[in-house]
Amino acid sequence: MLEDIYPRLMCEIIPRGLTDIDAQRVIDTHNEGREANAAYGKLLKSVYKANPGADIGLKLGQFLLPSKLCDFSRVLMTSENLQTALSLVERLYYVQGACYHPFTSRKGSKVYISLLFPCKTQLPEVQRRFCAETAFSYLVNGIRESVATDFRPTKVLFDFPAPAYQNEYTPLFGDSLSFNQNLNMIEFEDHYMSGKLSAYNTTLHQMYLKRYLDFARHHERNSSFEYKAISYLLLHHPETMSSENLAARLNISVRGLQKRLSKSGQSFSGIANLCRRELTKVYLIQQQQNLDYTAERLGFQSNSGFRRFFKAEFNATPAEYLEHCQNALATE
Fold first, then answer.
1. CATH 1.10.10.60 fits domain 224-330
2. Is pLDDT at 13 greater than 60 in this prediction?
3. Where are the domains of the chain?
């Protein structure tokens, strides 16, 4: 779940008169757990309703220095290196209740981090833009604060059109920006992964980690079961592409899994396909894997089954989809 500091930061940067909602009152009356999440979402919706082109994500990003934020940020800052910190992000970030899941991979001399949105098939453009702006700002700020002050990504992709304030991206992300892509992804050199973080401290790291895990256990009990199941499926795939494996990890029976998912109008095959859709983009675009590998990782028994799924989800063949990705990059 979102900790209190993030909604309060949002209150501070919302321009006066932009929304008819009393931002401070909303936060003061919804300041814990799922209510804080709801309040944060309500504020964002009110901002973008008043001005869909608002640069609120980048403005918030200026304040997202990990050393000044929550216990989870302090866990990351006191990790030994960036590799350890990013593995913790992948393993534990879902507890924050965000609508996106970060996914990290390495290939050659590059590191790739993308944002997956498996819980909502139709997410508004402004929400995806806000998530990408704040998540990537946080990452860049954190690396500059703890690893290298001159850090610049080698490439950043966004899955939305270039906003009117596009020029504000350059000081933070550099010049290698591409919009209207099929994935929100940031790429950087892998030598940043191994150097010790400037705030590395074993004792403090264990203390903050214990506090965050206590927080996680408390709030995980209150989270949506569908959200938790999707998170576990992403975290532990490809094994969790079977309902038996996912149920075992959630410590329930297969029948119990189906029963609890059905209460929210979902099924195992439904959440599996939500995750497959997002992971398909990771394997084909982020990792540049071939169709055979992608189909196998996503639990398909044959390429023909994967192609049928692909056509239904993306309204294109894999070849057409990849050609569109290449053309979009070429026009930037």
1. yes
2. yes
3. 1-51, 52-223, 224-330
